[in-house]
Amino acid sequence: MASNSDHTSHSSNTVSSTDESASSESGGRPELPEECRSQPGTDHYAATVELPVSIDEAFAYHERPGCLNRLTPPWESVQVEHSDQSLAPGSRVVLKTKIAGIPVRWKARHVWYDPPHGFADVQDSGPFARWAHQHLFESLDSNRSQLTDAIEYKLPAGVAGKVFGSGKARRTIEAMFAYRHRVTQDDLQMMADYPMSPKTIAVSGSSGLVGDALCTTLTLLGHKVMTITRGDHGDEGSIAAWGDPAEFEKFESVDVVVHLAGKSIASKRWTPELKEQIRESRVEKTQALCEGLAKLQTKPPVLICASATGIYGNRGEEVLTETSPDGDDFLADVARPWEDACQPAREAGIRVVNTRFGIVLSPKGGALQQMLLPAKMMGGKLGSGRQWWSWIALDDVVGAIVHCIQKEETNGPVNFVSPEPIQNREFAKVLGEVLNRPALFPAPAFALRLALGEMADSLLLASSRAVPEQLQQTGYKFRFTDLKECLRTLLGKDLKPATQATA
């Protein structure tokens, strides 16, 4: 997996939609259709990224279900409303997005398909007067390839659109493809770093922030994903682990179980009833799952079970590793039996990893999503601001889970945090800088306690200076170790490919 310094793009010569190398009429390859050929009065953009896998593997990644969702920038308000899950000519995609707050449907159609050399799509209706996008793949050697995204576009409203919108459109396109290329390069570097035969991986909590990203990425890497549901019966793609006992036999064909399900701890103020629901959803469900896995004739070799750095409690300046003692607050009292509930699986010979998540960063959900509005309103530190926050980018959560699946030496508790925890006041300052807003207005501790009760002390004011000792000792390479770079990438601020070609 590439580290922060490994992200490089390589410029190509200007790629126009009439480039014969894109269609290569010789050799029986399909000719580029008229819809993709250059028209007068349009703008062109192209950028190229080198990929650490063969051309066939690079193309296969883009062809698998979920690729569009995976490569959609998280700061964009975009939803896939419909997809034929195909790149073949005639297949269609409908996206829901917003332009200046106005809902827009973007309808696109694939018009050219030449595996593994490329594919192309055009806009049928949407925010542009014209949009034609070629995805061009080239082999560099048996283990390296490159991808060029070549766009021909035209803004609506004629001269006025070009005068007033061209700068914003170009910056948006640059940021989008800088993000897409980084994610593609990182994911395929992960494929190269962790070569695995296709596995069947069962995931609970698949609709959550981590679960959704994990299921999509595993599918793009060529694995079969089955969801673990709470219903009475599953289907061919799911397992009702806490329903019909006969359903449990499906785990016999599973290679890895990833158990992420649990009631949200931050959805509303804690009451005695809610605290019991939080505990039950983690401890009792995990206990039942692990007891069932232990009884199987053919057991999954690996169980990855969620946990949290909340197990350490409020520890001030103390640096916390996986061997640090537990805390004594509510979250610690949940996490401790949560991890202990995996004991039946351990005793049955299943390798168990307890992923102690820190603050998972993504604008799509979780803490960062909730912090964005206050930060844009120049909100600052919480309480004293001296409390340590252990954070991790969502993509590193996914990457570290893949690492733990493959690395047999990972076992027991593993801190899922970046190597550089940061104090809350510095976190607020960095977020403000990325958003171009000063972090001026602190939130006093008494006000947070008044609004949130016990939750304020456990989630916002507690200090947890956890470090990822196990991940680092077993060789995991983080995508993000610098908070500012992480936030810039997640929020699309000042992102540009290292090099690009334009016309």
Automatic annotation (TrEMBL):
DUF1731 domain: residues covered = 443-489
Lineage, top-rank taxon, reads Bacteria
Region feature (Disordered):
1-40
Compositionally skewed regions (Low complexity) per UniProt: 1-26
| Family the entry assigns | Belongs to the NAD(P)-dependent epimerase/dehydratase family. SDR39U1 subfamily. Belongs to the ribosome association toxin RatA family.
Q: Which classification does the entry list for the species?
A: Bacteria, Pseudomonadati, Planctomycetota, Planctomycetia, Pirellulales
Please provide an example of a Pfam family that matches this protein in its UniProt record. Answer: Epimerase
Q: Which InterPro entries match?
A: COQ10_START, DUF1731, Epimerase_deHydtase, NAD(P)-bd_dom_sf, SDR39U1, START-like_dom_sf
Name the UniProt record assigns to this protein = Nucleoside-diphosphate sugar epimerase
List the source organism: Rhodopirellula europaea 6C
